[in-house]
């Protein structure tokens, strides 16, 4: 049993899981998927297309005829991780195709790894398929190679990410995602609903709604209605909530219309959980970030959300050590945290990213000061988390079962916990009749800094 560590990078997707065994003689492709859940969805789409063409999916390099590395370019450290993964794949396999966010900078990749077979950018699915065809021709067996109705999933069968849009219209100075993934491009609501319906029909119990800016969904479509479904996040959330699965909203910017989602949470249509990237609380830091600078109004909004839905869980991410951040500005962030009392918190130490406008700002913060502020921030967040979890002891709640180990210990999540970025609830006894994906009722009898323990009711 492992407890949820406080220093996980808060942008990472769960580890990709492979469940199929390729048939004898089947051409196989390995996949290394790095970065955020949006990239994981891209990996699933690529593998679904390849699986439909008769390719098998290999969980390792040595058993594959070629390897796709889906890269991350969010931070310089993430770029370094991507280059390392490409190098490892080249050493272990030799045939490597690169895609994803870092693929938007092909010269950056080929300058370090000139032997890669091809480099494609994010969501360039056709180019990835062309590269795979060139490296490993397909050899389908129509009597054996049957594609699951839900496609290839890299997450456990009982939950799935549901990507509703690509790109972003924000111009945050520290971020180059819009340069790599483009401006906001929303999927039609009816297409999202159809995908969600198929997922639920095939056993998915939890839908995790993701995009770069979930609140802005449909803005580029002028919130048009098509086939009876309007492209607006409130309408979409209501439609998804009618399917009977848990619906969890990620990456929600605190626009005023977010308050319209809260009644849906109070009614139980979607989970009472908001993942909102506040990033900082001091107005001058937010201004230097080129982000909305209304921290006081944000506290008012939080109070309003909690008044309308007392069970709501608020998750956010923050950046400490942003260029020019003074000790007084950082202290404002700590004071804001005392008032906001957020339930789930992740934190980055600021890093330069090639191409980001924040690189040119004056007064960069020394690394040792960044580390000190990160430590102090996480100490504050941990204390808040510990107190909030302690208040849950004695409560009865529904949890979803993610895993049951060989000793019969079940790792579960409450409605307040997203996979692998938040905490867990552990059940030590009486799990013999439980299965992964079950939603069971428990009473909380112990709390830690990030995790809970409970017993079946």
From TrEMBL:
Catalysed transformations (reactions): L-aspartate(89)-[ribosomal protein uS12]-hydrogen + (sulfur carrier)-SH + AH2 + 2 S-adenosyl-L-methionine = 3-methylsulfanyl-L-aspartate(89)-[ribosomal protein uS12]-hydrogen + (sulfur carrier)-H + 5'-deoxyadenosine + L-methionine + A + S-adenosyl-L-homocysteine + 2 H(+)
Protein name, entry field: Ribosomal protein uS12 methylthiotransferase RimO
Family matches, as Gene3D superfamilies: Methylthiotransferase, N-terminal domain (3.40.50.12160), Nucleic acid-binding proteins (2.40.50.140), tm_1862 like domain (3.80.30.20)
SUPFAM superfamilies in the record: Radical SAM enzymes
Basic and acidic residues biased stretches: 8-20
Molecular-function annotations in GO: 4 iron, 4 sulfur cluster binding; aspartic acid methylthiotransferase activity; metal ion binding; protein methylthiotransferase activity
Organism: Thalassovita litoralis
Residue segments, region Disordered: 1-26
Major location (coarse): cytoplasm
Subcellular location(s) per record: Cytoplasm
One GO BP: tRNA modification
Keywords tagged on the record: 4Fe-4S, Cytoplasm, Iron, Iron-sulfur, Metal-binding, Ribonucleoprotein, Ribosomal protein, S-adenosyl-L-methionine, Transferase
Xref: Pfam families: Radical_SAM (PF04055), TRAM_2 (PF18693), UPF0004 (PF00919)
Name of encoding gene: rimO
């Amino acid at each position: 049993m492992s407890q949820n560590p406080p220093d996980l990078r808060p942008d990472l997707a769960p580890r990709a899981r492979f469940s199929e065994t390729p048939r004898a003689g089947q051409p196989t492709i390995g996949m290394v998927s790095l970065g955020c859940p949006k990239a994981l969805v891209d990996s699933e789409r690529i593998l679904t297309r390849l699986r439909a063409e008769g390719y098998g999916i290999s969980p390792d390099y040595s058993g594959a005829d070629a390897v796709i590395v889906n890269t991350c370019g969010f931070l310089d450290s993430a770029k370094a991780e991507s280059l390392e993964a490409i190098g490892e794949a080249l050493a272990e396999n030799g045939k490597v195709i690169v895609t994803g966010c870092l693929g938007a900078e092909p010269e950056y990749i080929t300058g370090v790894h000139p032997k890669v077979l091809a480099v494609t950018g994010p969501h360039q699915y056709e180019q990835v398929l062309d590269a795979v065809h060139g490296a490993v021709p397909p050899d389908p067996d129509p009597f054996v190679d049957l594609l699951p109705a839900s496609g290839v999933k890299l997450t456990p069968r009982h939950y799935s990410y549901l990507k509703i849009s690509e790109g972003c219209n924000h111009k945050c100075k520290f971020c180059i995602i819009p340069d790599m993934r483009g401006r906001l491009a929303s999927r039609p609501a009816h297409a999202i609903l159809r995908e969600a319906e198929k997922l639920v029909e095939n056993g998915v119990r939890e839908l995790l709604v993701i995009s770069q800016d979930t609140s802005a969904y449909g803005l580029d479509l002028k919130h048009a209605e098509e086939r009876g479904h309007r492209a607006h996040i409130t309408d979409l959330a209501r439609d998804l909530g009618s399917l009977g699965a848990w619906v969890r909203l990620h990456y929600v910017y605190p626009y005023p219309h977010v308050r319209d989602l809260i009644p849906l949470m109070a009614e139980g249509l979607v989970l009472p959980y908001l993942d909102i990237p506040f990033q900082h609380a001091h107005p001058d830091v937010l201004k230097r970030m080129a982000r909305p600078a209304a921290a006081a109004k944000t506290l008012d909004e939080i109070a309003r959300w909690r008044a309308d839905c007392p069970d709501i869980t608020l998750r956010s991410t923050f950046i400490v050590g942003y260029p020019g951040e003074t000790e007084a500005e950082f202290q404002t962030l700590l004071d804001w945290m005392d008032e906001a009392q957020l339930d789930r918190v992740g934190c980055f130490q600021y890093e330069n990213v090639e191409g980001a406008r924040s690189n040119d700002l004056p007064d960069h913060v020394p690394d040792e000061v960044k580390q000190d502020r990160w430590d102090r921030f996480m100490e504050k967040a941990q204390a808040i988390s510990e107190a909030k979890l302690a208040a849950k002891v004695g409560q009865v709640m529904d949890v979803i079962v993610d895993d049951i180990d060989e000793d019969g210990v079940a790792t579960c999540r409450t409605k307040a916990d997203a996979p692998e970025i938040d905490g867990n609830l552990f059940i030590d006894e009486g799990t013999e009749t439980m299965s992964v994906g079950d939603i069971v009722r428990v009473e909380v009898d112990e709390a830690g800094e990030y995790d809970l323990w409970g017993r079946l009711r």
